[in-house]
Design goal:
Largest sheet: 5 strands, mixed
Pfam families: Pan_kinase
CATH topology of the largest domain: Nucleotidyltransferase, domain 5
Family: Belongs to the type III pantothenate kinase family.
CATH architecture of the largest domain: 2-Layer Sandwich
Distance between the termini: 18 Å
Order of helices and strands: EEEHEHEHEEEHHEHEH
Number of strands: 10
CATH class of the largest domain: Alpha Beta
Radius of gyration: 19 Å
Strand content: 15-25%
Low-confidence stretches: none
Structural class: alpha/beta
Shape: globular
CATH superfamily of the largest domain: ATPase, nucleotide binding domain
Subunit structure: Homodimer.
Number of helices: 7
EC number: 2.7.1.33
Strand order of the largest sheet: 3-2-1-4-5
Enzyme class: transferase
Bound molecules: adenosine-5'-diphosphate, the ligand CC(C)(COP(=O)(O)O)[C@@H](O)C(=O)NCCC(=O)O, potassium ion
């Protein structure tokens, strides 16, 4: 069985893939100082809690935080006796090589999203991922990652308002009933919610104008369904897209 690990700047997600389906998905906050032993204590407690019969033979890691990879490597080696495949490292082959400026270190999560989305939908796609940052990953007709857009994440924008303005509270994003807010909270909700709808729509429209073929839009990340309530932003929403991409890249590297 494969243990797929997606480490974002905010959260780290572990999913167990038995070759047909994900048996479980576990989430913890990303923290570079977490040791291999601490990962295993957390992981084994939850696996036991869910009563899952697991036999991990392979581990694949995508991490937007370089410092966590060391402890995750030790975790894979010590507890599963395997050398993990790390996306973005030379020994990890991608199904299609990215076409970006030479020397660019593309976030591995974006390469994984591209591989997962291409496998499910074919080419000419925009993947919108609502993580710590909101990323737009453009997938060409042949499945290559050919660039995209990095915008500030939704929670980052809310946090920036709260941090910089003394009178603005910390709030969570929800869909406001009106655009014109009648109180501080509604005004902030509106700015972030409708602002993001405008951002996603505007950027996708401009990407489409620059691209030479019609494109479909795939939304992913915890907040994608919330924004889809406000407008028809996406052709499809897939909350397991990054995990699926990790299984695709693992299978590609296991061939032959
Ligand atoms: N379903 C959700 N509802 C509300 N907030 C969410 C949801 N899913 C994720 N978030 C928030 O969105 C932000 C990004 O989360 P995540 O997708 O885990 O980012 P990353 O992959 O960069 O670690 C975090 O602040 C997280 O708390
Ligand atoms: C853009 C990101 C910060 C998004 O990370 P996330 O929101 O998933 O934590 C990450 O993909 C990254 O660090 N990228 C490196 C630069 C690039 O992709 O071009
Ligand atoms: K991510």
């Amino acid at each position: 069985m494969l243990l797929a690990i997606d480490c974002g700047n905010t959260n780290t997600v572990f999913s167990i893939w038995n070759g047909t389906e994900f048996l479980c998905t576990l989430r913890t906050s990303t923290h570079h100082a977490r040791t291999a032993d601490a990962y295993f204590t957390w992981y084994s407690t939850l696996v036991k809690h869910y009563g899952i019969d697991v036999d991990i033979t392979d581990v694949i890691i995508s991490s937007t935080v370089p410092r966590v990879v060391f402890n995750l490597r030790v975790f894979a080696d010590r507890f599963f006796g395997c050398r993990p495949l790390v996306v973005g490292k030379p020994e990890c082959d991608l199904p299609v090589e990215p076409r970006v400026d030479e020397g660019t270190q593309v976030g591995p999560d974006r390469l994984v999203n591209a591989a997962g989305a291409y496998d499910r939908h074919g080419g000419d796609l925009i993947v919108v991922d609502f993580g710590t940052a909101t990323t737009f990953d453009v997938v060409a007709g042949d499945g290559a990652y050919i660039g995209g857009v990095i915008a500030p994440g939704v929670n980052l924008s809310l946090e920036a308002l709260h941090t910089a303005a003394a009178a603005l509270p910390h709030i969570d994003v929800t869909m406001p009933q009106h655009v014109i807010g009648k109180n501080t909270l509604d005004c902030m909700q509106s700015g972030v919610f409708w602002g993001y709808i405008g951002l996603v729509n505007g950027i996708c429209e401009r990407i489409r104008a620059e691209h030479d073929a019609p494109m479909r839009i795939v939304g992913t990340g915890g907040l994608a369904p919330l924004f889809a309530q406000g407008d028809a932003l996406f052709d499809v929403i897939e909350d397991d897209l990054t995990m699926h991409g990790l299984t695709v890249i693992h299978a590609h590297n296991s061939k032959g």
